[in-house]
Write a structure and sequence with these properties.
This protein is mainly α and about 80 residues long. The protein has one domain. Helix content is about 45%, strand content about 0%.
């Protein structure tokens, strides 16, 4: 079972393709943020925007989308 639910995720992103792109990019940013913690540079990548029990960066990114912290629009 996927958490958060897909219908809640699609309220912030127009379609499934956009959701995949947004979640993957944000998960990459969160990963880079955690790798830079020891270096002391925080300007390039923002920290996670939600509190999560998960350690999986993709799950954290999807939770951010579900809570409306991340929105994406693109032209077709």
């Amino acid at each position: 079972m996927i958490h958060p639910r897909i219908d809640k995720l699609l309220a912030s992103v127009p379609d499934r393709y956009g959701l995949v792109i947004v979640a993957a990019k944000r998960a990459r940013q969160i990963n880079n943020y955690h790798h830079q913690l020891g270096e002391g540079t925080f300007e390039d990548f923002p920290p996670p925007l939600v509190e999560s029990r998960s350690k999986n960066y993709l799950t954290i990114a999807l939770e951010e989308v579900a809570e409306g912290k991340i929105k994406h629009e693109y032209k077709r």
